[in-house]
Design a protein that fits this description.
heterodimer, A: about 325 residues, five-stranded mixed β-sheet, four-stranded mixed β-sheet, about 25% strand, B: about 325 residues, alpha/beta, globular
Chain lengths: ~325, ~325
């Protein structure tokens, strides 16, 4: 019996209302609009203005994706939530999302694969659908970074980059073998785990959270990044994993209609595009408005690319990501 | 149908008995044992996260499978207490094993993490995406517990450790699995902080006193729920595998309250062939089922070819069962 394909049949995005411009950040830290734009391409991002969890943003995005798909939340077979900023220490944000949506019974779990989380989640959804164990998977990427970054001069290298947001996809079984997710490709290289990481709370420390971890020149409760190192690896791995997806399907870069890169840094996306000779109209970026939203960035960009008319039925779309772990991934989709 | 090529487990060297906990928790060793049913547990040393124990467990499982880390195509790590906040413990394990650039997925499903991870692995193998996957479950709870009298009801219940399965796409290993979640009562068994929803920062100096960074368990609720959920998910997984209780040579149940797992076995009428972990090692959320199964094998309670059924219920709530052929 032929396995069904999986296909994204609904997409939704949600960001908090509160816009934080580069000029706003200059009031919190020693930085400039020019410096931030030149290095990252970011003009503004969203930060939550009141206590709000990743699953709260995720629930709004999920409702939109479900509405677009015409699927009731209760008919979802599996919930996957990709996040590195969960609502609570435990349980998972996938569980919190279930509660927000008022659904229960189907399995729900979190994927913690940082910037590649959405694509790791898409690959999992694809396997459940292809093997017939699920027909409708709700896949959400959601992050609240603003409560986990150092918004002072001390933390500016990382603090200016990240934003809050969520994106959701309803992934369903598709009988037309020419449409949907053609292949997914997942990688990691833990050797570089501490080139971009957030240490505390850390179960390997005893105790895992101490008053000292909240203080000092580089508090362990805020992320740390070796920016140059990450940049160089990102360009290499993005290029490799896009090539891998195309080659697996016997296609060349000319066949690709749209590349949606994880929105890590506009300069990384531009370097990758340049390597493939991809013109601007074949790549979608929105990092200028949202910053890096890690697991949320791909569905957030994908939904806007569709709204902008860049992707139509039949379009060949490549989603690709690279980030902390290091992890990197891609998915090739016939829309 | 995936086949189990190897299994392994690893525990910290440091054993902690109830005498050692008694003074800090303000209860006698006898009271702790009476209250929790746990006699001792193992605690990690500083610098040892779940990936440390998973790496040792993985080396054993790979040796048994006659494979090297280079033969693996994917790695899945279940933990509720990751080595660091990010990246996930899977990335650390991948580096410790020397796996090159295979994918390393981290799954969070609390106490049911190992069963969820086995179900995910089963899907990746059945779809043909990968041929060989290493599934690890590991937790270091001891660094996140309340060693004051306020923690006396919860702290003694938990222990540290890891367990690993190496699965191959060809053969007959995972016969059926069922996993479920229901978050309606998620605050009955949870740890609120650090919380990304909390502004301006996930954790403040003033939060230490409130103890919201320690796990909280509503005992009556969690007991009742576990007693309902373990038997029902066992029946469901058996039905997926198209088997009956009589076909299973050994059941392995786990719950943060060991007597709940035992009660579930009674309810199913299989108490005499059920192993329950935790009394001599504490609840190692993501690993206990694997640790207990490996120990059953060491003790000759299970043999190659046997059908076993693992089941658990816990925080989330997430619960699950997997029927395996060894």
């Amino acid at each position: 019996m032929r396995m069904p394909n999986s296909r994204i049949v609904g997409l939704g995005a949600y960001v908090p209302d509160s816009v934080v411009t580069n000029a706003d950040l200059t009031r919190l830290m020693d930085t400039t609009d020019e410096w931030i734009q030149q290095r990252t391409g970011i003009r503004e991002r969203r930060h939550i203005a009141e206590d709000t969890g990743a699953a709260d943003l995720g629930a709004e995005a999920a409702k939109r994706a479900l509405a677009e798909a015409g699927v009731r939340a209760a008919d979802v077979d599996l919930v996957i939530f990709a996040t590195l900023s969960p609502d609570y220490d435990f349980p998972s944000s996938a569980c919190v999302l279930q509660k927000r949506l008022g659904i229960s019974g189907m399995p729900a779990f979190d994927v913690k694969n940082q910037c590649s989380g959405f694509l790791y989640g898409l690959s999992i959804a694809d396997q459940y659908i292809r093997t017939g164990k699920a027909r409708r998977v709700l896949l959400v990427g959601g992050e609240i970074h603003s409560t986990g970054i150092d918004l002072t001069t001390r933390g500016r290298d990382v603090g200016v980059i990240f934003g809050d947001g969520a994106g959701a996809a309803l992934v369903a079984a598709e009988s037309d073998s020419r449409r949907g997710v053609l292949s997914t490709h997942l990688h990691a290289e833990g050797k570089y785990a501490e080139k971009l990481w957030l240490e505390a709370a850390a179960s390997r420390s005893r105790p895992r959270l101490t008053p000292e971890m909240l203080e000092g020149d580089r508090p362990a409760i805020f992320p740390r990044m070796d920016g140059k190192y990450v940049f160089k690896h990102a360009v290499t791995r993005f290029t490799e994993v896009i090539t891998e997806a195309l080659e697996r399907n016997g296609l060349g870069i000319d066949a690709l209609d749209v590349l949606i890169p994880h929105q890590a840094n506009l300069r990384i996306s531009q370097m990758v595009a340049m390597g493939f000779n991809l013109t601007e109209e074949r790549m979608f970026n929105n990092i200028d408005r949202y910053g890096n939203t890690t697991a949320a960035s791909i569905p957030l960009a994908l939904s806007e690319a569709i709204a902008a008319g860049m992707i139509r039925e039949g379009s060949l779309v490549c989603l690709a990501a690279f980030g902390a772990g290091f992890t990197w991934a891609s998915a090739l989709i016939r829309w | 149908m995936p086949k189990i090529l190897g299994m392994g487990y690893d525990l910290p060297a440091r054993r902690v008995d109830n005498e050692e906990l008694a003074r800090e928790l303000g209860r006698s060793a006898e009271e702790i044992e009476k209250r929790t049913g746990v006699t001792s547990r193992s605690y990690a040393e500083a610098g040892e996260g779940p990936s440390h124990f998973a790496a040792a467990a993985a080396r054993g499982a790979l040796a048994e499978a006659n494979l090297t880390a280079k033969d693996l195509e994917f790695l899945i790590f279940a933990t509720m207490t990751p080595d660091v906040t990010f990246p996930g413990s899977g990335c650390y394990l991948q580096h410790k094993l020397g796996c090159e650039t295979i994918g390393a997925l981290d799954v969070r499903a609390q106490c049911a993490g190992l069963v969820f991870a086995l179900d995910v692995a089963d899907r990746f193998l059945r779809s043909g995406q990968y041929r060989r996957i290493l599934v690890a479950g590991g937790d270091v709870h001891s660094s996140g517990l309340d060693f004051s009298p306020a923690g006396a009801d919860v702290t003694p219940r938990f222990g540290d450790g890891a367990a690993v399965f190496v699965l191959d796409a060809e053969g007959e290993g995972v016969l059926g699995a069922a996993v479920r979640s229901d978050a309606t009562e998620l605050e009955r068994f949870w740890c609120e902080f650090p919380s990304s929803r909390r502004r301006p920062v996930r954790f403040l100096q003033s939060d230490f006193a409130a103890g919201k960074h320690f796990p909280k368990i509503d005992e009556p609720y969690v007991r009742k729920s576990g007693l309902e959920k373990i038997p029902s998910i066992v029946e469901e997984a058996l039905s997926v595998a198209n088997l009956r209780r009589a076909d299973v040579s050994r059941f392995v149940f786990q719950h943060v309250f060991p007597d709940v797992a035992e009660g579930a076995a009674e309810a199913l009428g299989v108490r005499e062939r059920t192993s329950v972990g935790g009394r001599d090692g504490g609840h190692v959320a993501s690993a206990s089922l694997g640790i207990t199964l490996c120990r059953d094998r060491e003790a000759g309670r299970v043999s190659p070819g046997d059908v076993v059924c693992l089941a658990t219920a816990g925080a989330g709530e997430c619960w699950g069962a997997a029927v395996l052929r060894l």
